[in-house]
Each structure stands twice: as structure tokens, then as C-alpha cells.
Amino acid sequence: MARKQTLTKRISVTALAWLFSGAIFFPIYWMVITSFKTELAAFSTPPTFLFFDWTIENYETVQTRSNYLHHAMNSVILAGGSTLLALLIAIPAAWAMAFAPTDRTRGTLLWMLSTKMMPPVGVLVPIYLIYRDFGLLDSRIGLVILLCLGNLPIVIWMLFTYFKEIPKDILEAARMDGATVTKEIIYVLAPMSLPGIASTLLLNVILAWNEAFWTLNLTTSDAAPLTTFIASYSSPEGLFWAKLSAASTLAIAPILIIGWLSQRQLVRGLTFGAVK
Amino acid sequence: MSTRETRAVGRLLVAPSVILLFLWMIVPLALTIYFSLLRYDLLNPGMETFAGLDNYYWFLTDPAFSTALANTLMLVGAVLVITVVGGTLFALLLDQPVFGQKVLRLMVIAPFFVMPTVSALVWKNLLMHPVSGLFAWIANSLGLTPVDWFAEVPLLSVILIVAWQWLPFATLILLTALQSLDEEQKEAAEMDGAGAIPFFFYIVLPHLARPITVVILIETIFLLTVFAEIFVTTGGGPGLQTTNIAFLVYAQALLQYDVGGASAGGIVAVVLANIVAFFLVRIIGKNLEA
Amino acid sequence: MGNIRLEAVHKAFGGVNVIPGIDLDIEDGSFVVFVGPSGCGKSTLLRLIAGLEDVTSGRIFIDGANVVDLPAARRGLSMVFQSYALYPHMSVRNNIGFGLKMAGQPKDEIKRKVEAAAASLNLTQYLDRKPGQLSGGQRQRVAIGRAIVREPKAFLFDEPLSNLDAALRVNMRLEIASLQKKLGTTAIYVTHDQVEAMTMADKIVVLNAGNVEQVGSPIELYERPANLFVAGFIGSPKMNLITGAPASSLGAETIGVRPEHLVAARDGEGWKGRIAVAEHLGSDTFLYVEVPGVGTLTSRTVGELGFKAGESVVLIPDAKRIHRFDKTGKAIR
Q1: Is the pLDDT of residue B246 over 50?
Q2: With contact defined as beta carbons under 8 Å apart, do C10 and C59 qualify?
Q3: How far apart are the first and last CA of chain A?
Q4: Within 10 A of C138 (CB to CB), how many other CB atoms are there?
Q5: A263 contact C CB<8A
Q6: Do C53 and B1 touch (CB under 8 A)?
Q7: Are strands C186-191 and C31-35 parallel, antiparallel or unpaired?
Q8: CA-based angle B275:A106:A185, to the nearest 5?
Q9: What is the pLDDT of residues B250-289, one digit of tens each?
């Protein structure tokens, strides 16, 4: 791994890197391209990569025929609602664990983590039956609660690792200035750890947006987010590729952008602070 | 800085999280265990009878279980190999000074943000379709016979899709770890005259050992419960060829309405996941003390 | 008012007694310095008074009221931290005014007080900056401004000058001392630097391993150290401590002579030795003299007397200024 690279070597490594990275990215590129083709062109051989008649009719059809916006709205509500709810519960808890630890804090943190490791199928049956009996199947509120609980351990963990980096002197100074715990959190801790809170929020929006076990099993139409909506394209095979691509592009675009923006913080959140 | 008073407030503030997670984990899990001991048909409610360990017996001796277990292990193992090896190579490649490094990074991590239903359907239709898919066209152009992916090698197809989703995760984490390998260490190794190969095996690989372990464990937890990709592509078929434990439990419960059997399967899945979780929690816990 | 009294204050972390038990009286308006080597428990003691840590047992009275069960926020004290602990996201104005805001004072009242405090600390032109845009000394002033603006019962200083460079430290030392005199507010100041302690304090509390070794005015401590620890800790350069024959001849286990009370001469009655190092500071000269059978002694002589390393010299102690200590290290009076 020589540090001083010749230009030739650098160019060849660059070519190699672009080749492989391009291959990884290709399915997404292909999906986006296909979404701008007519159904006929999407299906034709040989495939066209750039030079075809670009059209946006698929995007129009997706909305008019299948009420895309309704599902997109559900995704926003489920991902946003569950994340905000989780933050509300997690910020005070993470404050306590970072700044007022007890002998049991470490054990509690690891226990919370272990709840995240329980496979959802292990509780599918009772959750399904409970939701059925309480009329929560295919309801937004039911899913918001479920997604919130599912991600709560990650939210607490991420916030905990961010809060740990705030010098405790500053919180003590607030305390000496007469601030109660609530005010200490609102006026000092939260503004100081805003970047950390923001990246926690983003990661959890991503996870909740893409969650596809509970949403597939517990929603059908009213509360169905984009994951469920896209899954409905799986049955009439072959005929709606361009529309499938258009719907898919719309479904992943916001999250892809959020993901790209928060990629540096993702590692810490995804590994519970084990890799920074 | 903690006093009795702040610790008391602290306990009060942790309590909601602990109670909620406790309810979310213990109550359904207890119910699952309870159901797993019953003969319980969703179509005949009110007819439940105590079944002892029968459900476990039937579930574990059902040939579907051994097939599903084999499929699960195959899926987890293959995806792990592809993503860890591929991720390490990608991370090494992207750690080199190449032109457009930032753009490449964005391209490589993108698949991780694609929702499972989208990636499964895009791969199944746009790429793997035996007649009009891109792979078929490539095969034809090369004079080969196109593969009918989901008919001929269904499990491999699912593995490819899932591996594509998780390769970015491994790459991103290993790349971050590589970048924390400090420059001086690299230079010291260079001064010692270490070539590229020994440098990799004696310096880089040991440095990556921990992140790789973390990647393996976290991926395993998610891969044990792969569901959506199977649900929208093969529905577990053909036959049972792509049924994993998660899908088997789902099918037992919501397609065959056998609550007791599905619950027994759920418990089996929990036990499997806990074996992995045990090691992961220990690694993360160690890190917590540092 | 700001009268602080500690009664049998005891603090243990885990099983370790950091402070085995301290009684102390701090009069209103006085400037008290807790001094001692690192790990002696001085910061812990300050944090116990502040309410940032619990006492394990014992009582702390502020103006006659026992405050051990009151949280830090309600003890009416203010603190200047070693790291300054300014709120990085707030302007200087909001940093100084935060305590008043928490106390629910009206906005124009806060503005008036903050501006007055800023003016007295020469911070007026920086009021709208963030702490990150200030120099170390300016941050220090903001921290002090934050402490004084609330008109607390007492100021607590936790090694506030240790992050400043030497020149600034001397300035701030004077400034803090004169500000405290002007306001007449009780101050407790923690430091490991005995020069700070000597120059600033009305009363010094010397701490060692969680115990109070001696309490007294700077001059008392200097002239009449109660024990070997205080004798060795207060004064720079350190007091010469001599054991063996010279000590036992005076009926003590150890005797101590400060360098300034050890006169160096070409000849005479005293300890004969050879100069190992001579440090010429201009106003003073420090001689490090190796005396056979006694050890290396330090002598401080005024001005230039022309001593050089390697020369022989006689050290003559001022007989009235010899400190005697018994086996347990206590001073024999």
C-alpha cells in the first residue's frame, strides 16, 4: 500500500473503483432510467440506456391510478411520527444514563439493546392478535407505536453516545445557575447536541421508512405506507415495469437523499457506537 | 456529578423507556410461549386446548422446518461471505486516493437506503426476468442461454438481492474503520519495508478484526429475519426452496392459521437469534467500558 | 450574607474515604483557599459545598441552614469551573444572564444587570459574541461575570486559572482578589498552586488525603506550620527538612529551615558543603549545597554575592527561625 502513487497507478485504481461502484449502483440507475420510459420501451430488447423517448407519464399514472400520495403520506406519518415519539421518550432517558448513571445503567443499556435483537417473527402472532382485538390492524397509530418501540433502543443508544461527548461541567454550570433538570435539557443539552439529535432523527426516519416486516403484515390499505404499496406490484408480473420503476423511484428518493446527507453519522448509529 | 437527587430524577426519566420496552418484549413473548403450548386454530377461535410440547414436536420434526433452517443458514452464511469479503475489498479500494472518491462513496452506499420491497421487485423484474430482464439480454448478447433466476436458482437469487442490500453496510463500516487506521502507523510500516500483502495481513486485517465482527453479528441479526424480499419475489417457493424460518412462521400463522405451531416456530427463531445476540451484546458491552 | 459551616463532612466513593471527616467555619465575606496536592480531596470538598455531589454523612450550613438535602440549583451559590464551562451555543450576554433567566427575573432587569457585570469586567464589546470567538482570558472573565451577576451567597472557584498562561494568571489573580474585596462576597477558591493560595487568601485551608492539615492566614502558615506536610507544602523554594544528628541535638526528629533563613557565607559556624548548582535570578540567588551527612540544602541569598558552582560554602541557620517537628511530624512549640 505505497503512499506515493504514480499517476498511472492512480488512474487504473480509479477506473477499477468506478467500474465496481458503478456495478453496485447500476440497479438504482436502471430503475430511475426505466421510470422515464414507456411501458413498451421498458420491455423491449435490446434495452436502451440513455437514448429513448423520455416521458413522465408513468409518474402521472402512478398518482392518478393508485393514489400514490396517500401511501407516501402514510410513510411520512409512520416514519416521522414514530421517530419523534421515540425521541421524546429517549432524550430524557439518555440524559439520565449519560449524566446520572447508577450501578444498573450499563445493564439497562445492554438489555435495551437486546430487545432490538428479538426477531419480529417471535412476537408476530400475539401482536397480530392483540392488534386485531383492539382494532389496530391497518391503523396509523398502531404502526407508529410499533415502529417507535422497535427503534427506541437504537435511538436511546445513539443519543447516549452523543450526550456522552458533552462535557459534564457545562451541565453542572447550568445546575449552579439554578436550572432544573427539564431546563437543563431544554436550554443546554439539547441545543449543544443538536447535530447528534439530528442524525439520530435521520437514521431512524430511514429505518422506519424502510421497515418491511410489520408494515407488510399489519397494513393493507388505510395505513399502508410505500413498502406495502410497492409490494402490491408483485402480483401482475411483467406488465408495469415503468410504473413500478416510477413508484419505486419516488419511494426511495427522499430516503436516499437523507441517507446520503447523514452517511457519516450512520456508522455510529448502526453499530451502537461500537465503530465510530 | 451525580447526587442522590439527580439519580432519582434519572431513574424517573429512564422509567418510561424501560417500562415500554419491557411491555413490548415480555408481554408478547410470554403470549407467544403460551400460544405455543396450545392447539389453536385461528379459524376456530374458542376451541383452544392444551397441547403441551406437541407444537414444538410437530414444528421441529416437520420436514419444512429442516428445509427452512437449511435455507436460513444458507442465506445468512452466503450473504455474510459476500458482504464481508466484498465489503473489505470495496473499503480498501475506496480508501485509495482515487478521483471522485466522494461520489463513489455515495454510489456504493446507496443500495442500503432502498426499501426491501423496491430492491426485490427491481431485481426480480428489471434485472432477473428470464426474457426481458437485463441479465437475459447480456446472456443473449454473449451467446449464452439466459438463466431463469427464480425458477432455476431461487435461493441464489434471493441471496444476491439481499447481499446487494447489505454490501454497502459492510463497506461503509469497514471504510470508516480503515480511515481510523492512523497515518503514522501506515508510514511506520512503509519505513519497515512492508509490502502491500504483508501490510494487509499484519496491520490492516488485525485492525479490521473488531469492525468485521460487529458487521457479522449485526448483519446476522437482520439476516435471520429476512422477510420482505422473499414475500414479494417468491412467496417462499417454488415449493419450499426459498422458505426461511421467518417466512415459515409467517406462513404457518397467517396463511395456515395455525397459531400454536407458528408460536412454537417463533420461539425457535427467538432462541436462534439470542445465540447471536449473546455474543454481540458482549462485544458492545466491552466497548461501553472503554 | 454568606456564612458557611461544615460539620463532620464525610465523603466516600465506593468503599474509599475521600474525605474522612472535616469541620470548618468560613466567615461571611472572607476569601478562603483550599490548597493541597492533586488528589487531596479539595475539589471534592468544593463540589460537596456546591451540591454537585452528596455528602456521605455530615452537615453543611449556609447562613445557618442545613443544605445537604438541597440540590445545587437551590443553594444560592455560584461556581467558576476550571474549564470555564461556558454554554458554547449562547452569546456572552446569554451566558452571563442564564442564571437570572432561570430565576425568572424580568428581561430588562436581566439586561441591566448583565451589562453592569460586563462593564465591570471589560466585556461590553464582546456581549454578542459566542464563547468560541473569545480568548482564554476573555472566557475566564465571562465565567466570572456569570458567577457575580446572580449576587450569590458565595463564589466557588475550582482551579479557575490553571488553563491560562503564566502572565495572564498573575493578572487574573489580582483581578479576582480585588473584585472579591469590592463585592464583599464570601469566596472559596480551590488550587494546587501555593503561590495563588498565599497571595489571594484571607484564610488558607491546607488539605492532604482528605484531611485538613492546618487552617490559618498565609503568614501563620508560613511562620508557624503545624506539621511537616504544611512546612513542606507552603513556601517556595521548599523548606529544608533535616533529620538525624542536627535534629536530635535540638530535641526533635526533624528540623526545618526555610532557604531564606539559611545564610551562605565563606566561613563561620554552620554546615559546610559544596555548591552543586547556583541559580542567579537577579534579585535572588538560590544555592543548592551538598552538605556531607545532611543532604542537599537550599539557600536563598539576596542579590549577587558571587557564589559559583563547585565552591565551598558554610550555611548558617537563623537559630530563631528553626522549625522543630516530633516523630509524628507535628510541630514542637
Answers
A1: yes
A2: no
A3: 23
A4: 18
A5: no
A6: yes
A7: parallel
A8: 130
A9: 888 877 778 888 888 888 888 888 887 787 777 777 766 5
Residue C320 cell numbers, joined: 530563631
Chain A residue with CA closest to B11: the answer is A96
Mean pLDDT score of chain B, rounded to an integer? 83
| CA dist., res. A124 & res. B153, Å (int) | 29
What pLDDT, on a 0 to 100 scale, did the predictor assign at position A2? 45
Which residue ranges of chain A lie beneath pLDDT 50? Answer: 1-3, 238
What stretch of H or E contains C276? Answer: strand C271-280
Which CATH code of 3.40.50.300, 3.30.420.40, 3.40.50.2000, 3.30.230.10 fits the domain covering C4-227?
3.40.50.300
Rounded CA-CA distance B41/B49 in Å is 10
Q: Minimal Cα distance from A103: which residue of B?
A: B7
Q: Which of residues 108-137 of B touch A (CB under 8 A)?
A: 108-127, 129, 132, 134, 137
How far is residue A7's CA from residue A17's CA, in Å, rounded to a whole number?
15
ipTM: 0.83
Q: What is the mean pLDDT of chain C?
A: 89
Quick check: A231 contacting B, CB < 8 Å? Answer: yes
Contact C188, C77 (CB under 8 A): no
Report pLDDT for A236: 58
Interface subset of C 145-174, CB within 8 angstroms of A: 146, 150, 156
The residues spanned by each domain of chain C are 4-227, 237-325
What is the pLDDT at residue B100? 83
Joined grid coordinates for residue C6? 461544615
- Distance, in Å, from the CA atom of A15 to the CA atom of A188, rounded to the nearest integer, reads 49
Separation of first and last alpha carbons in chain B: 19
- A–C CB contacts, 8 A cutoff, strictly below: 63
What fold does the segment set B55-289 form as a domain? MetI-like fold (1.10.3720)
Domains of chain A: 7-59 (no CATH), 67-270 (1.10.3720.10)
Cβ distance of A110 and B281 shorter than 8 Å: yes
- Residue C4's pLDDT band (boundaries 50, 70, 90)? very high
Q: How far is Cα B51 from Cα C135, in angstroms, rounded to an integer? A: 76
Write the CB contacts of B56 (distance below 8 Å, at least 6 apart in sequence): B36, B264, B267, B268
The whole-number average pLDDT for the span C132-139 is 90
- Residue labelled with grid coordinates 454568606: C2
Q: What is the pLDDT of residues B103-160, one digit of tens each?
A: 888 898 899 999 998 998 889 888 888 777 888 888 888 888 888 888 888 889 999 9
Mutate to test the interface with A, among B36, B119, B122 (most CBs of A within 10 A): B122
Phi, psi of B225 (to 5 degrees): -115, 25
A109 is written with which cell numbers? 443499556
B248 to chain C, closest Cα gap in Å: 52
> Which residues of chain B neighbour A109 with C-beta distances below 8 Å?
288
DSSP assigned state of A188: I
**3-state secondary structure (DSSP) of residue B250:** helix
Residue C111 Rama label (left phi>0; alpha psi -120 to 50; beta)? alpha
The tally of CA atoms less than 13 A away on the side-chain side of residue C142 is 32
User: In sequence order, which ranges of A36-167 are alpha helices (DSSP H)?
Assistant: 39-43, 57-66, 68-99, 105-116, 121-133, 140-163
Q: Which of C47, C52, C54 sits opposite B4 (nearest CB)?
A: C54
CA C16 from chain centre, in angstroms, equals 25
| Domain covering C237-325: architecture | Beta Barrel (2.40)
Pair B267, B244: CB distance under 8 Å: no
For residues A266 and B172, is the Cβ–Cβ distance under 8 A?
yes
